[in-house]
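Sequence of 5-demethoxyubiquinone hydroxylase, mitochondrial (Microdochium bolleyi).
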Amino acid sequence: MALSRTALLRASRHAAPMHDLLIAALCQPSRRCLSTTTGRHQAAPAPTQPKGAPGKRKPLTKEQRDFLASALRVNQAGELAATLIYTAQKTPIVRAHPHLRPLMEHMYDQEASHLKTFNALIAKHRVRPTALYPLWSLMATGLGWGTAVMGREAAMACTEAVETEIGGHYNSQIRTLLEMFEQWESEGYEVGDELRELVGTLRRIRDEELEHLDHAVEHDAKKAEPHWLLTGVIRAGCRGAIWASERI
Ligand SMILES: [Fe+2]
Ligand SMILES: [Fe+2]
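Predicted 3D structure, token representation.
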């Protein structure tokens, strides 16, 4: 069963205190860094700096760099898939239900904005896109077209399933980042504005995904037949795509 927007938000809010976060970054010799200092790129602190000195930022570990790179990679892939799903759904759905045009266009516009955001972030930080891009493109278009042909309820069930998984996925990333920041702050380190901005971006996009989930349920996603099978298969596919895109 899909998690409600309220439940997802509650899970996120209980995950960790809401303060700031993000940064550090994808600092590797061949990469630009997500700086912990506003507006400029900064090398890791010199080893002679005292731990926890005021105003100091802790360098990212390799595990943290890998997490941030995989997070940007999978988010960019997911948003590409979302734009393709809505693009494929729009024509059949609007032809059969003209009153849904504003809703379909609204959701597509938000997905296009999300994709633009992550395109910029992976380019800025030189994160490679997933190698599975062509496969996800094909599958997303097929999923969008196939569910739209099945009817309005199936198309909305597709949105319900996808956004349930994506909402949980963004919550998981936010939770991990907040825990990272909390750890840094407990050690006396600061978190820079760039990472704070990244968490804000993830929260905004998560909220918009959950808005899509609400729209889908309001437009009879639960009436799709068979709802349990359709949403179950799509949600499993989303989880598999997320797992693969984080790694490949
Ligand atoms: Fe999105
Ligand atoms: Fe969405």
